[in-house]
Amino acid sequence: MDLVVSKSRFVKTLRMDAKKSNQRRKHRVNSGLLFLSKFLQHGKTIASVWPSSRMLARATIKEVDWDKARVIVELGAGTGAITKEAVARLKPHTRLLAIERDVDFVGVLRERFSGLKNVEIIHGDVCEIESILERRHITKVDYFLSGLPTPHLPPAVRKPMLAGVRKYMSPQGVYSNITEVPLLYRGHYRGWFENVEFQFVPVNIPPGGVYHCRSAMDVQ
After folding, report:
1. 56 pLDDT band (50/70/90 cuts)?
2. Which homologous superfamily is 44-216 in?
């Protein structure tokens, strides 16, 4: 009898695991197709043709000290590749704000991460970062995680965003920005931050990397 029950439980577990695996696969495909359609519509204002790989997402959050972080802001959260890795490591004392302008991406984010008390999905534009943080009575941000094609953003968006980063990033804070073109834009980031390190991530579509930046400068 015990053997029959154990076998039944084993089969049930396998079916549940297979179902979860199929759901994850379906989500990855749907997210990828949504990303591709947005890229075809909006071109370089979308960072990539496909969502960030797990390796790229993990590289983006590499600099975060999870025991000390109080506020983390994600700029251009897309369908949540970086958000997912951050959420998995969040401490109860850490607050994550994920800002996304595209309404379809926002819908995906809210479906995936709603119900988490220290995570807020914000439908807004990164050029309004200062007012977004001010309304939430946030005075300092420990880490900015950006999935945006920052060098390709219109100046009317990029300049106020970087000004907000400079104003709110803590003295020991880090701004980490993904890129799909390794090293090409290093000069841009060195014009915006005093300290810039690049981490190459070959496992991504296409191969990419992350700029980890410290000490934001005044951008005119």
Report:
1. very high
2. Vaccinia Virus protein VP39 (3.40.50.150)
What are the tens digits of pLDDT across the range 184-209?
889 999 999 999 999 999 998 889 99
Distances in whole angstroms, Cα of residue 7 to Cα of each of 2, 15, 18, 87: 9, 12, 17, 35
Contacts 24+ apart (CB under 8 A), 50-55: 50/205, 51/78, 51/79, 51/81, 52/78, 52/81, 52/82, 52/147, 52/178, 52/204, 52/208, 53/81, 53/201, 53/203, 53/204, 53/205, 54/81, 54/85, 55/201, 55/203, 55/204
Give the amino acid at 60: T
Q: For the chain, what are the domain ranges? A: 44-216
Q: What is the pLDDT of residue 182?
A: 80
Q: Tell me the C-alpha distance between 23 and 21, whole Å.
A: 5
Q: Are strands 141-146 and 208-216 parallel, antiparallel or unpaired?
A: unpaired
Rounded to two decimals, what is the model's pTM? 0.80
Residue 47, phi then psi, degrees to nearest 5? -65, -30
70: which residues sit within 8 A by CB, 6+ positions away? 93, 94, 95, 140, 142
- Look at residues 168, 156, 83, 93 and name the one whose alpha carbon lies nearest to residue 132: 168
Is 57 in a helix, a strand, or coil? helix
Q: Kindly give, in sequence order, each residue whose CB lies less than 8 Å from that of residue 94, ignoring residues fewer than 6 positions away.
A: 66, 69, 70, 71, 72, 118
